[in-house]
Each structure stands twice: as structure tokens, then as C-alpha cells.
Design brief:
The chain is an alpha+beta fold. It folds into 2 domains: 39 residues; 86 residues, no CATH class. 49% of the residues lie in helices and 15% in strands. The chain is built from 5 helices and 5 strands; from the N terminus they run E-E-E-E-E-H-H-H-H-H. The strands form 2 sheets. Strands 3-2-5 form a 3-stranded antiparallel sheet, covered by helices on one side. The radius of gyration is 15 Å and the shape is globular. The relative contact order is 0.13.
Length: 137
Amino acid sequence: MSGLVLKLAPRERLLVNGAVIENGSRRSRIAVLTPKANILRLRDAIHPEQATSPVRRVVYIAQMVLSGDASEDSAKSELLRGIEQLSQALTDPDSRNHLAQATACVLSGDFYRALKSLRALMPREDRLLSAYPGPVL
């Protein structure tokens, strides 16, 4: 089976091409066979007021494409610019790998996988920001 496979918890909601879908009362797996379908788990969604750090702002832009609130063309340049800025600060090999994957996904139009790669950087950013308290630029 090819495509994206989502494992959903009971009553978990997701956004698929602009429509909110809720899982039933049991765990389930859904295979998405349509390439480039816009899918966003609502439990993973970042609200605008939560996009307060560099990584979260870039994740939010990718999320806006998946929710249909931003066009792929306009978001692509913003995402690539944001990823480039992140690569100036996150220089360890693992972060570089996630940023390279996110860049490749954005360039190929795979915004779900770009979002997934960028989200992996959030815990690292949280640790860095907690080590150096102060305002985030």
C-alpha cells in the first residue's frame, strides 16, 4: 500500500482538503491514496497566538497551506526563507537533516512532510529557548 497512513485515536479530528473529519469511537487507520492531499491533524495544529518562536512561525506557515488558508505559491517562498533563517541558528547535524528534508519537501510541494520535519525541531527549540530566557525576535 502506498500513500500516507494515518493512525487515529478515538474521536480524533483532522482536516482533509478543508473538511473536518472526526474518527469514530475506536482507534483506526486511514490510508490516503490521493497524492498531495492537504491533511492536518487538529491536535497538532498551532493557533496563531502560539506561533511565537522562529520554528513555530515556520511550522504555522506550512500549516496554513494544509488548511487551505494560504496558497502553495505564496507560502513556498516564505517557508524556504524561514528554513534558511533556521539553518543559521540550528547547526547541529540532526537539525540540518530535518531542515534539508523540509526544504526538499517544500520544493516538491509535499507540505505535510515538510510540516512533519519542521515539527521535529520544536522540542529542540524549546530546550534552546529555555536555556537562554529572554525575548524571542
